[in-house]
Write a structure and sequence with these properties.
- By secondary structure, the protein is α/β, with parallel strands linked by helices.
- Helix content is 43%, strand content 12%.
- The chain has helices at residues 23-32, 34-48, 62-69, 72-81, 105-122, 147-165, 184-193, 205-210, 215-221, 248-252, 266-273, 292-309, and strands spanning 4-8, 52-55, 85-90, 126-129, 170-174, 200-202, 230-231, 233-234, 256-257, 281-284.
- Strand 4 (126-129), helix 6 and strand 5 (170-174) form a beta-alpha-beta unit.
- Helix 5 (105-122) packs across helix 6.
- The longest helix has 19 residues, at 147-165.
- The model has no long low-confidence stretch (mean pLDDT 96).
Length: 314
Amino acid sequence: MAPRFATDIVTFYHPGFWGLESADAFRDWAVKNPERFWDRTMDALAEAGVTGIELTFAPGDIDSVLRAFGDASSFRHELQARGLSVVSAFIAESECPDWRDSDSLPAIVADAERRASFLADVGAGLLVAGLPMRATSGTRPPFFVDAAYMTRMADIAHIVGEAVAQHGVKLAFHTESNSTLWYERDIDLFMALTDPRYVWLCPDSCHIALGGGDPVAVARRHSQRIALAHWKDAVKPIDVELTIDETVFAQQQPYMTELGTGIVDWRGWAAAMSLTPGADIVLIELDEAADPVSALRTGTAVAKGIRADAGLLS
């Protein structure tokens, strides 16, 4: 059975698509005009032939949806009218309580339950989270991603995963560059410490490669816990020590590239993904495409070609 194609709403964050001059101008406009933002985004998705969406950080977030449509069911109706649906929602670290703060657990759970309730109402079943970022190399005191740290993260993940499961939603973790779930060793350790009934994986092919890892090997080792995957390519592993602050995501951008033009073994990746619980969705991640309709059509065509090359139905 051929999969559905999806994308992250960040695909539509390029200011040029909106006739604006800067990212700040776009975000200010989108926050003030959520109805217009969502109408054009949904129309563009339908035009591109991509039927699934992952909600993300503002302005393409749950709060924006609620400002535009009032409730999840109204949003679901508007999506269905265009042949669209929500696949998942991503929790940005900057927009949720700090997992490193031991006093934050009640707020972390409440935040996740709020999002899971929305997802259930809109007909989606997956909440994607990440672990906190690493510290810039040389920071004092040093921050170690050791067994004690991962055990704390696993404990929180279990509590959150069980809480959202009550809403029929799975909790999956994204392998973000420069986070504490980046290197292959990080992923293996966290997966070993967590219960597969409550904690799932959302591997990102690009980010794993940026950390010097092998996305295909990760996908094969953890195939039965992959609820969703982000399909994105990398130019090469990050070869410098980046400053890990609010600019780190922009610093990583030059290492990312269009699907099929980088170093990811796409044939191996597609074959591995076909054996996972998340096989029915191919989520193509395109960060801030100036022409998102064209980029999504191209990305979808490339992904279909990759799957065909791997001997899979397109």
